[in-house]
């Protein structure tokens, strides 16, 4: 039997990982394989994890999760050879990936026969300014979608969902638009009960790849001062597309904090115990090319180190 693919796309920080987490945590008996670009971003509840080997984490509910290393088609071929075979495959794209290129790869006749692309889901932060949908990348992510899920409605403010729906309609997008509170989307939309293989898609002409974003990393073996870090993030915010990291603060020693920045909003949450041998602070920043200099970032972040 063919194994249907659900492709999850959306811009940096839109909430894709939250949607994938919810799917895996509420699989309802389905054997789902998730393929993600950044495995560390998947935050499955500890009680779901059974074991890990060869880059694949097996979950106690019968699902598995693996990182995308190398060629997508090779990764899919490996999953399809697993025993038991997954019943569904979820692919979470990078926030800066053009999904049309991935759709084009999935139209490979061998993959199409074994793992047809069933549904393309685009996740959009409901607080995204309407003008941002004119961006070529976000427009491409929208136009290949069968379903558009509005995320972070609880943070977006009153009327944001309605405004975003109007902005999506203005883009002449034919997809179904649904609310995705806390990452929840009706499974019947994502996994339709049908024995009929989906028709091949036309992703459109191939466009030249454009390097638009860069990743800058900062690490330290020292605790951070939370007030200083908050000030620095405020200064960096206008230049950032996304940021995430783990660190320990002098205010709460011995406790690792999980930092996320997306859509202009920063959040902090308690994390697991720090891994032995890892730096006390490690943060990844994503910005458009040339917007943020490494020397500037290092100088600002070094200023967040707590005094001994």
From TrEMBL:
- Record field: transmembrane: none
Q: Which InterPro entries match?
A: CobW-likC_sf (IPR036627), CobW-like_C (IPR011629), CobW/HypB/UreG_nucleotide-bd (IPR003495), P-loop_NTPase (IPR027417), Zinc-reg_GTPase_activator (IPR051316)
Entry GO terms, CC: cytoplasm
Q: Which reaction does it catalyse?
A: GTP + H2O = GDP + phosphate + H(+)
Q: Per its UniProt entry, which superkingdom is the organism in?
A: Bacteria
Q: Which UniProt keywords apply?
A: Chaperone, Hydrolase, Nucleotide-binding
GO molecular function terms attached to this record: hydrolase activity; nucleotide binding
Where is each CobW C-terminal domain found?
Answer: 213-305
Q: Which PANTHER family match?
A: COBW DOMAIN-CONTAINING PROTEIN, COBW-RELATED
Biological role stated in the UniProt entry: Zinc chaperone that directly transfers zinc cofactor to target proteins, thereby activating them. Zinc is transferred from the CXCC motif in the GTPase domain to the zinc binding site in target proteins in a process requiring GTP hydrolysis.
**Stated family:** Belongs to the SIMIBI class G3E GTPase family. ZNG1 subfamily.
Supply the name of the protein: GTPase
Q: Which organism is it from?
A: Bradyrhizobium manausense
């Amino acid at each position: 039997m063919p194994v249907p693919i659900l492709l999850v796309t959306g811009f940096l920080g839109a909430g894709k990982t939250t949607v994938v987490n919810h799917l895996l945590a509420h699989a309802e008996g389905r054997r789902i394989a998730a393929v993600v670009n950044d495995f560390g971003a998947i935050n499955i509840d500890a009680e779901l994890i059974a074991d890990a080997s060869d880059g694949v984490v097996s979950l106690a509910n019968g699902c598995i999760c693996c990182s995308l290393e190398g060629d997508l088609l090779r990764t899919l071929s490996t999953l399809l050879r697993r025993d038991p075979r997954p019943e569904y495959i979820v692919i979470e794209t990078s926030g800066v990936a053009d999904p049309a290129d991935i759709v084009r790869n999935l139209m490979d006749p061998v993959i199409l026969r074994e793992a047809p692309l069933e549904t393309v889901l685009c996740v959009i932060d409901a607080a995204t300014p309407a003008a941002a949908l004119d961006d070529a990348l976000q427009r491409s992510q929208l136009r290949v979608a069968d379903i558009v899920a509005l995320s972070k409605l609880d943070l977006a403010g009153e009327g944001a969902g309605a405004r975003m729906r109007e902005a999506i309609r203005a883009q002449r997008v034919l997809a179904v638009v649904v609310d995705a509170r806390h990452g929840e989307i009706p499974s019947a939309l994502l996994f339709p009960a049908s024995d009929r293989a989906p028709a091949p898609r036309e992703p459109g002409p191939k466009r030249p790849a454009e390097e638009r974003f860069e990743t800058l990393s900062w690490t330290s073996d020292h605790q951070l001062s939370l007030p200083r870090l908050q000030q620095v993030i405020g200064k960096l915010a206008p230049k950032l597309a996304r940021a995430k990291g783990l660190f320990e603060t002098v205010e709460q020693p011995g406790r690792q904090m999980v930092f996320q920045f997306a859509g202009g909003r920063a959040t902090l949450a308690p994390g697991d115990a720090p891994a032995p041998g890892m730096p006390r602070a490690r943060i990844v920043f994503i910005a458009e090319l040339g917007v943020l200099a490494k020397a500037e970032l290092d100088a600002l972040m070094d200023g967040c180190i707590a005094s001994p």
